[in-house]
Every structure is written in C-alpha cells, then in structure tokens.
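Our preliminary data section would be incomplete without showing what the modeling component actually yields. Below, a chain of 413 amino acids is followed by its predicted structure, encoded as tokens that our downstream tools consume directly.
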Amino acid sequence: MRNARLAETLPLRPRDPYAHIGSMRGEARAFTPADEAPASPAGPAAAAATTVREAPARPLARKGRGATLNDSGRFEPHRREAEDDGWGGLDALPALRTEIIAEKAKTVITRNDSPDISFDRSINPYRGCEHGCVYCFARPTHAFMGLSPGLDFETRLFVKDGAAETLARELAAPGYKPRTIAIGTNTDPYQPIERQHRVMRGVLEVLARARHPVGIVTKSSLILRDLDLLAPMAAQGLVKVAISVTTLDRKLARAMEPRAAAPDSRLETIRRLAEAGVPAGVMVAPIIPGLTDVELETILTRARAAGASEAGYIMLRLPLEVRDLFRDWLMTHRPDRMRHVMGLVKSTRGGKDYDARWGLRMTGEGPYAWIVGRRFEVAAAKLGYARERRKLRCDLFQPPARAARAGAQLSLF
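Predicted structure:
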C-alpha cells in the first residue's frame, strides 16, 4: 500500500526509449482480449490445476528457434493450430529451414506520427527476423502477409530487393527534408541473412554518400562489418548505435533469442564501436518482470565499462499474438515462473497483458513499473551515462545526383 501511494505521489514520467536514435512505428491498433480463466467453484487450488491442464500442446518447438507455436494470423478466415495426438509422431521434428522471399518495395522510408517517440521516419530492410526473439513486438506484422507471427516470423523472411536504389530516389525527391532515419526499431537490420543479402549495407552506403543522419538498433555483432562506413559518418555527427541487451545469462538468452549474438558478444560490439569513435549506447530491452529485471543494474554497469555513453530501457510489451507466444514459451522453458512473470506483467498494464496507450506502452504504469524506472535513473546517473541525448546533424545533407531522379522518372515499374 505504501508503494502504491508513493507511485501516485510521484508518477512515472513518460520516457522516449528511442530518443537517442530517432523513431519507431506505432501500433496500428490496441488489442487486449480478456485472458482471465473463469473462476473455479472449487477455490484457488482447483483454479491453479485448471491453468496447468489448459496449457497448450507444444509440438512445434525446434532447436534454434524462439517460438513454440505457428498458429495462423488474426486476419485469416480459418484458424490452424498444430496438435500432438499423443502418438509421439512429432517428437523428433527436423530443423526448420529459413525461406527467403524477395520483395520489390515501392518505398522504403516508413513514416509515423507517434507522439511518444522522437523520430518520424524509419527503414526496415527485412520483414520478419531470423533472430527469433520470442518477445518481439514486431511479430504481429507478419499477419499482414498472411503468415503466422510464430515460427513463420523467424523462418519465412522477406528481403527488400533494390532497397538502396529506392532509398536514393526518395532522398532525391524535390522538397525532401532530412531528419534522422531510425533503422532496427522493428526487425534487426543485421540479422543473419544480412551476411548474404547485404541490404543494410547498401542502404548505409546511400546514407553515407548523402550525408544523411541515421540511428541504428541491433543485437548483432555483424554491424562491425560496416565500421568503414560508420566511423567516417560518426566523425561528421551523422550516426549513433544502440546495442540491445536483454540478459547476461547465456543459457536464457539462447532460449529466448536463439539466433542473436551472445550477451558477451554484444558488450564486445559496444567496446569496438566506441573505440572506432562511433557513439554507442545500450538498450536494456525488454525488461521482463520476474525474469530479467534483476539484471538491470548489472547490464548498465557492464555496458558502461565497455564504452556505452547512452542508455535506455523498455518494459516487456505483449501486443496481439505476442501474448500467446510468450505465455507458451514460458510454459516450455520457465513453467515455474509463468504465473509470477505474468502477474507482474499485468501489474504494469492495468491488470491486462498489454496497454497500447501513448506514453505508457514503453514503460508501463503502477508501483512495479515506477520502481523499475527509478532504479534505471539512479543507476544511469551513478554510472555517468549522458543525461542529454546526442543530436545528429542534418545540415550536411546532399541529395543524391539528379541522374538518379531522372532514371526514376523514366521507369514505370
């Protein structure tokens, strides 16, 4: 009760977790279906037993993949679910292979007017993400492609073919005004398939030639491949990078983010970026109540020692289908923590699994969320993280050559 009164007296200040980068797309809609099990007439013990019995079957768990389900998307006319009939035929399923689908994008710059983030434009070189982070809030976007936000999201990936050329035409458009472009706020631009397809590399080359500011978020050490571009851009005040670190527990990270870089590799990436003169920060994201929240100060300390100059955090978000995916992951990997974790999640979302209201969706509300926010602020101040976010320069922008625009006008397709 004392904490509740304290939270009411000192409300959590809305925080823009991407302020040091530049922007992110907002949710298309808020969706918070009721998820409470009906009350059991036999009391709490019977209710707990019912919860266990109703746990969904998990026949689709694959080594190296994050999701344990592959249910159809919310826009499909029929709902498809895999079910184990008990005969053991699904016990030794083969590994899922990644399928690549080429996509010819008419535009690559996505714009948003979300009031609680600082950037108004972003680029996503890929749809879907092979990292397979089970908590990824971008998973529901795969439903727009007629695919599952579950295993499809991390195994059926769309590559935006010709993204660099399309971006050059957009930057050369008459009246274009430069502002920081955020990359990596939806899916990771340096996910494993970037090694072969190099879409991010091409986009970065265009931005470097045009002297356009860019903020990057990633979990991958593959970003070090592009230091030859990033270092000169950083010297001109055109780029900064945030490395996302969820946990320092390698075993937990491997189960939760199966194809992302190991925690130590991410800290090493921060160190090498900082040594090359590229402003590097750390995103403690997401903070999972009852699972990774105890690591907040340790992550900030280790990242600061590696050279991180800015820091941010995001509370776990479970929009749309992510709710069921995360619940099932908990039942598979941390069944003893499920009720505690989800109870804390609900306490930060007004009793629901998710609340998409502006200003609250990133940080949550309530006493628990307030305490996490204060812990972050105290630790960041003690460790010497920058209070003011680094601003990137827009005055150096040089539109791509007129020849690029002329070529675009002659092309009908």
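The chain has one domain: 2-8+55-410. Residues 76 and 394 are 43 Å apart (CA to CA). Preliminary results of this kind motivate Aim 1 of the renewal.
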